[in-house]
Write a structure and sequence with these properties.
With 143 residues, the protein is of the alpha+beta class. It has 2 domains: 9-86, no CATH class; 95-138, no CATH class. The protein has 4 helices and 4 strands; from the N terminus they run H-H-H-H-E-E-E-E. It has helices at 18-30, 32-35, 50-67, 78-86, and strands at residues 95-100, 106-108, 114-115, 134-138. Strands 3-2-1-4 form a 4-stranded mixed beta sheet, with no helix packed on it. Strand 2 and strand 3 form a beta hairpin. Helix 1 (18-30) packs across helix 3 (50-67). It is elongated, with a radius of gyration of 17 Å. The chain starts with 17 loop residues before the first helix and ends in a 5-residue tail after the last strand.
């Protein structure tokens, strides 16, 4: 049976191949001794269900192993996004500038995600589906 890798390219440190990253996440999740020395904390960790917390810890350690530093922002990582979507983590009230390009694509000023217009012509969402920041949409494309 095929396995679906759920994640986001922003979770993969450096130039690590996605399959290798996925295999390392699985390895770290299965070996508690590999996560014993995690010196990283983010407030959302208290709100994650155990399985998501386990995955997040594995991802943070892999990030550290590859980059020699802990991640600055985990708001776009899969366990955090899914917990937010389920309502386990409250939405952020942080605001980011966003703009709609000439092609109608909405650009998030924080995480640089791009959101295509809805097919039915309805307006874009009020917040980024990736980083969860509230959009303050400007008319001009920033330089």
């Amino acid at each position: 049976m095929p396995t679906v890798m759920k994640g986001n390219k922003r979770e993969i440190p450096g130039n690590m191949p996605p399959l290798l990253w996925y295999e390392k996440v699985q390895e770290y999740m299965a070996a508690p001794e590999l996560r014993a020395d995690l010196a990283y904390f983010h407030p959302v960790m208290e709100l994650l269900p155990p399985e998501d917390l386990l995955r997040l810890k594995a991802q943070v350690l892999i990030w550290y192993d590859v980059t020699d530093r802990y991640p600055d922002d985990i708001s776009v990582w899969w366990p955090v996004r899914m917990a937010r979507r389920r309502g386990d983590i409250p939405h952020t009230e942080e605001v980011t500038e966003a703009w709609i390009g000439e092609d109608g694509v909405l650009h998030c000023g924080f995480c640089k995600a791009r959101w295509s217009p809805h097919h039915d012509g309805s307006p874009h969402a009020d917040r980024c589906g990736l980083c969860d920041r509230v959009f303050h949409i400007t008319k001009e494309v920033p330089a």
